[in-house]
Amino acid sequence: MVVRDLGCGTGSMGRWLAPRLRARQQWFVHDRDAGLARRAAASLPVPATPVVGTVADIDLTGTDVVVCSALLDLLSAVEIGALVDACAAAGAAVLFALSVTGRVRFDPADRDDARLAAAFDAHQRRDGLAGPDAPDRVAAALGRAGMEVRRETTPWRLAGGSAGSRPLAEEWLRGWCDAAAVQDPTLDVDGYLARRLTAPFAVEVGHVDVLGLPR
Length: 215
Ligand SMILES: C[S@@+](CC[C@H](N)C(=O)[O-])C[C@H]1O[C@@H](n2cnc3c(N)ncnc32)[C@H](O)[C@@H]1O
Hints:
Strand content: 25-35%
Bound molecules: S-adenosylmethionine
Oligomer: single chain
Distance between the termini: 18 Å
């Protein structure tokens, strides 16, 4: 089974998925960052080859499975359409995991949550990127290409109140606020962060997985 992981990063998708596929596998791990592609290939428990390039350059000839995680929002509508067409032409099954949906729910709520969320989503949609629209676009395109499509919600639940996950919740929060501030400099991001970082909080960050199977 030939599997390609697009935008592989450090290879987390391969380390998770490869042991779950009951077949002999050859993986190709693609990233535009050469260092990440090499690191991902070395970390997989099955044979894996690093490929340096962008999704736009991809050749899926002979590919059985195409996967990615946390990538779709970084692609344009045109790139998403071309990718789905290429997957369908290759007859490949696809699993596009962990795409952001734009849904963010804090506990407790803050008066500025909605403004920050709107600015973050607008930042994700900059320069024609699909951002939180990516999962809907990809699911529709897979359906049009004749594939059987399944979606599952896969939210991140970060509990900023517990000692164990507080550093991760804070790191996510700072990144979210930074992007919102770039998009809308009128936001009082410092005030918002000061309120959030001096009190416990939990946040659910909407994500979705989309599976497409050739019929
Ligand atoms: C958010 S990270 C996700 C990494 C990994 N898939 C994971 O889930 O941990 C996105 C990755 O995609 C790569 N990337 C972004 N846009 C890309 C493109 N157009 N073509 C190829 N790789 C891309 C980045 O270099 C980065 O490693």
